[in-house]
Write a structure and sequence with these properties.
The structure is a single chain. This protein is mainly α. Helices cover 47% and strands 7% of the residues. It has one domain. The protein contains four helices and two strands, in the order E-H-E-H-H-H. It is globular, with a radius of gyration of 12 Å.
Length: 83
């Protein structure tokens, strides 16, 4: 596990994966990631969640990780998207 990356999938999610969803396994899961800073519980559809992971995987590693780390601080402190 790394500091930044897509959240680890649960087995019931993997059962529903299509071929293009397996790209998420190309990177290590992380403690924080694109889903967490995009509003967590506000991201309710599988396609939006999948889209944020795909965008994460497609960017340069250092740039994407720094941006996500910077967005994590206000998301956690402001409880953005939390129930």
């Amino acid at each position: 596990m790394s500091l930044v990356g897509p959240r680890p999938p649960i087995p019931s999610e993997v059962d529903l994966y299509e071929a293009h969803h397996y790209a998420r396994f190309d990177v290590k899961p992380g403690i924080t990631g694109p889903w967490q800073v995009a509003g967590r519980n506000k991201v309710t559809t599988s396609s939006r969640s999948s889209g944020s992971r795909t965008a994460y995987i497609g960017r340069g590693p250092l740039v994407r990780d720094v941006v996500i780390l910077l967005k994590t601080i206000p998301a956690v402190l402001g409880r953005s998207g939390a129930i």
